[in-house]
From TrEMBL:
GO terms for molecular function: bis(5'-nucleosyl)-tetraphosphatase (symmetrical) activity; phosphatase activity. GO terms for biological process: RNA decapping. Transmembrane segments: none annotated. This is Serine/threonine protein phosphatase.
Length: 244
C-alpha cells in the first residue's frame, strides 16, 4: 500500500465528490482483475462516493493467460459502471495486425500467442504470408464482434481535474493537447527521466515497476501483473492518492 508523497507545491486534485479507481496493464490476468473489481465494489459499498469513475489505462491483452475473459469482464463492467477505457500499445498493435496480417510475427513477440490461445487458436511463430492471413481470418471469425469493437474504440487519454490519464506517458515540453499518439502509447525514457511538471499530474502504466511509484509529477501503476501476480489499483479522491 503506497500513499502519495509530501510535495512542495500544491497537490493535484479531483473535482469535489469524484473518486477515481485506476488500473493498468492487466495483460490477460482476468483472475486478478476480478479480485480488483471485488476491492472496488467493497470500497464503494463502504464509502458511497458521489461519483465514481473507473479508468483503465490500456494493455488488456497479450502475455497473460486469458485475454478473452479479460475483455468479457471489461465490457460487462462498462454496462454497469461509469468506465473509461484507454488504448495501450498492445491494443494499437493488435488492431494493426487485423488490418495488416503481415505484422503477425512481430505481434507474437509481444505476447500475441497467448491471446490467440485464449480464443482457442494455436499457431507456430514461423508462418508464411498466406498462413498469417489465414490465421487473422480465423481469429476474427471466432472473436465476438463486441471484442473487436471494444479494441477499436479505445481513447488515447482522459483528463479529470488536475489529473491526466494515459497508457505510457507524454513527451516533456510538448503541451498535452499536442501530444502524438505514438508517444502516448510507447514513450519511456524521455518521460520517465523528466522531473518537469507536465501541465497535469500524469497517471500511467506501460513500464513495469516493483511497486507503484507516486512521484511529484507522475504516478506509475504498472506492477507487471502477468509476471508478478500483482495488479495495482490506484484510488484518487480530492488530493489524496492510495495505491493498493
Amino acid at each position: 500500500m503506497v500513499t502519495t508523497p509530501t510535495q512542495n507545491s500544491p497537490r493535484p486534485k479531483l473535482p469535489n465528490g469524484v473518486r477515481i479507481y485506476a488500473l493498468s496493464d492487466i495483460h490477460g490476468c482476468a483472475h486478478l482483475l476480478e479480485q480488483m473489481f471485488a476491492v472496488i465494489d467493497a470500497d464503494m459499498a463502504n464509502s458511497r462516493p458521489f461519483r465514481a469513475i473507473e479508468v483503465f489505462l490500456g494493455d488488456y491483452i497479450d502475455r497473460g493467460p486469458d485475454s478473452r475473459h479479460t475483455l468479457d469482464l471489461l465490457i460487462d463492467r462498462s454496462r454497469r459502471r461509469n468506465t473509461v477505457f484507454l488504448k495501450g500499445n498492445h491494443e494499437a498493435y493488435f488492431t494493426s495486425v487485423l488490418d495488416d496480417p503481415s505484422r503477425t510475427a512481430d505481434w507474437f513477440q509481444f505476447g500475441g500467442l497467448q491471446t490467440l490461445m485464449s480464443y482457442g487458436i494455436s499457431a507456430t511463430p514461423d508462418l508464411s504470408k498466406d498462413e498469417q492471413s489465414d490465421l487473422v481470418r480465423e481469429l476474427t471469425s471466432v472473436m465476438p464482434p463486441q471484442h473487436i469493437a471494444f479494441l477499436r474504440q479505445l481513447r488515447p487519454t482522459f483528463i479529470c481535474g488536475d489529473f491526466f490519464f494515459v497508457h505510457a506517458g507524454v513527451r516533456p515540453g510538448v503541451p498535452l493537447s499536442e501530444q502524438r499518439e505514438q508517444d502516448l502509447l510507447w514513450i519511456r525514457d524521455e518521460f520517465l527521466q523528466s522531473k518537469k511538471r507536465f501541465g497535469k499530474y500524469v497517471v500511467h502504466g506501460h513500464t513495469p515497476v516493483r511497486q507503484a511509484e507516486l512521484l511529484e509529477n507522475r504516478a506509475n501503476i504498472d506492477t507487471g501483473a502477468y509476471a508478478t501476480g500483482n495488479l495495482t489499483l490506484l484510488s484518487i479522491q480530492g488530493n489524496s492518492m492510495l495505491a493498493i
